Amino acid sequence: MNVVRTTDARPHPVHRSRRMSAPVSRRVFFGLSVVLFVASAGLTAIVCLSMSAAGEMPMPGGGSMSMVWSRMCGQTWPRAAASFVGMWLVMMVAMMLPSLAPVLWRYHEIIGRLGNARAGRLTAWVSVGYFFVWALLGVAVFPSGAALAALDMQWPAFARSVAAVPGAVVLLAGMLQFSAWKAQHLACCRDAWRRASHCTSGCVDVLQANVRVAWRSGVRQGLHCVCCCAGPTAVLLAVGVMDLRVMAAVTIAVTAERVAANGVHVARMIGALAIGAGLLMLARAVVTGAAAG
């Protein structure tokens, strides 16, 4: 008697749930990233518009200074610095998250593939370490900006002499885009944890993943990113730290060179545009200074 054995071709519910977990996790991750980006971008826009409504302080050199570098009425310098750093951090979340989210997802995938149930929490610690570096940069930037603003207000000759500085900064930032230093840090930003996707026992940062290691990985990635974005960040600070148009241009530039197929080529194209803009700004400053003289 022949026994006919039939097999159920339908996948087991456990296997089916495992296959569905990755797409669901991806949707949740990028959904949260979009929500965080919209919230930070919206808050940044509100602060920028409020600053714009308050007006800019006219400078003796003929330009103007954003109120972000000065104290509000009755505000102490520590409170002014804390307010700036908080605003700076929110702004950096909005500007860097579009290029950071794919990198964070790559880390989340690797941790999850190795069976780490805490992948979400460790990925969050990576992002905290990353933005901690940007917050430290804001702490370092504010005293310099406030000091330069004070000098501009007190010494008209100094204000007139530095009128060409923004154009020079943009020009140098464009030239930096062509350097090997820029290419090295850009490669580190683009390739973060990419080689670890096929890791073995040598991938210590992945296999020994814990909060301390995740934090350290985020800080290391943040340092590479700050170095890679030195040029665009300098442009942002020199041209208009609270200008939404400048923020949008820097965000597009940073994201393009991170996600494009040939990041170095894109970075050099951005550098060429910055060099052209810097030369125009320098020429305008010379003409304005000659007319004022």
Automatic annotation (TrEMBL):
Q: Which residues cross the membrane?
A: 28-54, 85-107, 128-151, 157-176, 266-287
Q: Which domain of life does the protein's organism represent?
A: Bacteria
What keywords are annotated for this sequence in UniProt?
Answer: Membrane, Transmembrane, Transmembrane helix
Q: Looking at the Swiss-Prot or TrEMBL record, what is one Pfam family this protein matches? A: PpoB2
Q: Quote the InterPro entries the UniProt record gives.
A: PpoB2-like (IPR018688)
Which protein, by its recorded name, is this? Metal-binding integral membrane protein
**Natural source organism:** Paraburkholderia humisilvae
